Every structure is written in structure tokens, then in C-alpha cells.
Amino acid sequence: MTQQKKALITGLTGQDGSYLAELLLHKGYEVHGLIRRASTFNTSRIDHIYVDPHNPNAQMYLHYGDLADSEQINNIIYNVAPDEVYHLGAQSHVRVSFDIPEYTGNVTGLGTTRILEAIRRSRKDIRFYQASSSEMFGGATPPQDEETQFVPRSPYACAKVYSYWMAKNYREGYNMFASNGILFNHESPRRGETFVTRKITRGIASILAGKEKYLYLGNLEAKRDWGFSPEYVEAMWMILQADKPDDFVIGTGETHSINDFLDEAFSYVGLNIEDHVRIDQKYFRPTEVDALMANPDKSEKVLGWKAKVTFEDLVKIMMDSDMRAAGLEVPGEGDEIISKKFGEKWWKKD
Ligand code: NDP
Ligand code: GDR
């Protein structure tokens, strides 16, 4: 019998952390997660998979800590002794990183070094996944791949570039299995409410429910390569199962503007954009990333990973979910896409 694998996830309570935990539990892993103490509950994305540790069936364990606290990180990595560490924890909001650049550098940048150091000091054979980002490409001309130069355009992106290089440095300097997944934007019904896709689908649901009249947004011209989070956490797992540590771009290979997203979402529910969308300067960024589009050829060739959910599918999946949450009747095309493309899906609640 093969031994049960143990994984530690930072950022367990976030969009990706919650799907990844579900995927790893489904694969039979024992899952450990770093969570922050908050004065209100911050576990809504993982409540449905949480089992009280007194229960003999419990396979997921939570550990209080913070990426700014190296002592606790050292303790957790030493005591848990995981086989794999998925480092997803970060101050992940690009616009917010302009307001709190130092904090973002500490958590999104130095947080990675704290984990890498803890691994190096405890057991160097632990496999490490770094949540790198297409934001690192910033001002580089699309399409972007593993060879594209980084041109970071925000404190967040600068912190991620630092983390990317630290992962590579520990791979080369200490022979550690440290890999970067350079993931392009990926969304889902669990996406944080202030990222643009979720803000739009949730905003439209509120308008339909008669709670709001307008949706206030910033730059509608920017283009992104948007995919579906559950598929992207599968890529993270595949990256750590590869024969050797390496860096991989993960994306769909398509790009669309915020305007395209609005068109698709408003037409899905039969509303008029002009009647409901207003521009507010406060959502613009001091420096913008104009266009991102992945060239994901390497991940398809080496990992066998390819996105199934298209841009149009994604909008429908997110609209159905937010309309359901608002107590509205749902068009249902998003639900159909999920069952057609995934059959028996491994994630439960959305
Ligand atoms: P989220 O913002 O949804 O989740 C971030 C997670 O990090 C949360 O669990 C949050 O905890 C945790 N966190 C934040 N600050 C700290 C801290 N100081 N100490 C410990 N934990 C902390 O991000 P996503 O799930 O969308 O993304 C996961 C990772 O992938 C992030 O690193 C992100 O930067 C990166 N990424 C994301 C992409 C995307 O399109 N989603 C694309 C490329 C990279 P809490 O719940 O308490 O706030
Ligand atoms: P991004 O995602 O910055 O790409 O980072 P976000 O959804 O915040 O912005 C995408 C684009 O939409 C424009 N935009 C707005 N954005 C927000 N949040 N709110 C608005 O009202 C609004 N109006 C227009 C932005 O200017 C931008 O061009 C996400 C995060 O998940 C990162 O952690 C991750 O690394 C990258 O994706 C890949």
C-alpha cells in the first residue's frame, strides 16, 4: 500500500486554496492549511469540507499563522512535515497593493522566503509550489510564455517577481524541488467579490434583484486571459507531480477586455449595459497592465494540461451562481456546461 501523502496549503481560505484542498482530499491526501486569526469567521469557502479533528474521518487540519511570522511558519513546516507545500497565501489584490505597498512586499514577497527557508532548514526534499502570476509580465507584449521578460507594473507584481526568483534560487542553490506556476487570471463562483469578474456578476445579480441600480467600474479597455479556477488548481498539482522542478505558464491562450466580459454577462441576462454601468476614477490604477494572453504550449506538451472552460462558459457559470445566491431564477447554461465538461466533479459546493 502506498503511504498517504501530506500537503500544506498557505492561502487555504482563498479561492484557489479552497478548491485545491478539495482536490487533494479527493485524491486521498492529508491536508494541512495555514489560516489567519480574524475577529469574524474567514472560512466560508472551506466550511463544507471541514470535519472536526476529533472525528476519526478528519483529513484536513488548520493551523493558525501568518506569512509575516517566520517563527510560526518554521514550527508548522517542522511539525507537519508535509510532502508538498502549495504556497498560495498572499495579499493578492493588485489595486490594493498600491495603497499598502510595504505590507504587500512583506507578505507576498518575503512570505515566500520565510517558507522556502523553513523548508531548507527542516527537510529539503519537500516539493514547493509558488503561486506566480501573469501580472509579472505586466507591460510585456502578448502572447506571454516562460521565456517572456518580466515588466512588473504594481507593488503586487514586483513582490511576485521577487518570489519567483527566490523559488528559482532555492531550486538552483539548494537543489530543492521548487516550481513556479505562472497562472493567468482564473475565476469562479468563489472569486473574491472585489475582483472585476465577480464584481460584475454579483453586481448584475444585485441589479436583477432590485437591490442596486448601478455598477461602478474602472478601466474597461484592459484585456485578460480568464480561465476557471478548479482547472487551474489541477495544474498546480500536476506541476508538483512532474519528474523535475520547472516553471510553467497556465492560461487559455485567449484574451478579452472588461468590455467583452460586460457584453457577455449583460446579454446573458437581457439587461442593457448603458443603463447600469458607471465609471469611477477610484478603480483606475496608477500603472495599468493593458493586455495579457498566455501561450500555454509548454504546459500542454509537458504536463498534458489544457483549459476546457472557455471565456463564454466562465461568464455563464459565474452568472448562474451569483443569481442563485441572490435568490433569482437561473438561466442554467452555466450549470449545464459544468456537468457536460466535468461529469462527476470533485468540488462540491458553489
Ligand atoms: P485570494 O485572495 O482568494 O486568497 C489569498 C489567501 O491568502 C487567503 O487565504 C488569505 O487569507 C491568505 N493570506 C493573505 N494574507 C495573508 C497573511 N498575511 N498570512 C497568511 N495568509 C494570508 O487569492 P486566490 O486564491 O485568487 O489566489 C491564490 C494565489 O495565487 C495568490 O498568491 C495570488 O496572488 C496568486 N494568483 C492568483 C491568480 C488568480 O487569477 N486568482 C492568478 C495568478 C496568481 P484570508 O482568507 O484570511 O484573507
Ligand atoms: P488583476 O484582476 O488585477 O488582473 O489581478 P482584477 O480583476 O482586479 O482586475 C482586472 C482588470 O480589470 C480592471 N478593472 C477593475 N478591476 C477591479 N478589481 N475593480 C474594478 O472596478 C475594475 N474596473 C476595471 C483592472 O484595472 C484590471 O485591468 C488578478 C489577481 O487575482 C492577482 O492576484 C493575480 O495575480 C492576477 O489576477 C493574475
Could you explain the architecture of this structure?
It is a single chain. Helix content is 41%, strand content 15%. The protein has helices at residues 15-26, 70-80, 94-99, 101-122, 155-174, 196-208, 229-241, 258-269, 273-276, 297-303, 311-325, 333-342, and strands at residues 6-10, 30-35, 60-64, 84-87, 127-133, 178-183, 186-187, 215-217, 223-224, 227-228, 247-250, 256-257, 277-279. The chain has a 7-stranded parallel β-sheet with strand order 3-2-1-4-5-6-11, sandwiched between helices. The chain has a two-stranded parallel ribbon with strand order 7-10. Strand 5, helix 5 (155-174) and strand 6 (178-183) form a beta-alpha-beta unit. Helix 1 crosses helix 7 (229-241), helix 2 (70-80) runs parallel beside helix 4 (101-122) and helix 6 runs parallel beside helix 8 (258-269). The longest helix has 22 residues, at 101-122. The radius of gyration is 20 Å and the shape is globular. Bound molecules: NADPH dihydro-nicotinamide-adenine-dinucleotide phosphate and guanosine-5'-diphosphate-rhamnose (GDR). NADPH dihydro-nicotinamide-adenine-dinucleotide phosphate (NDP) binds at residues 10-17, 34, 36, 38, 42, 66-68, 88-92, 107, 131, 133, 183, 185-186, 192. Belongs to the NAD(P)-dependent epimerase/dehydratase family. GDP-mannose 4,6-dehydratase subfamily. It holds the Pfam family GDP_Man_Dehyd. Keywords: Lyase, NADP. Its cofactor is NADP(+).
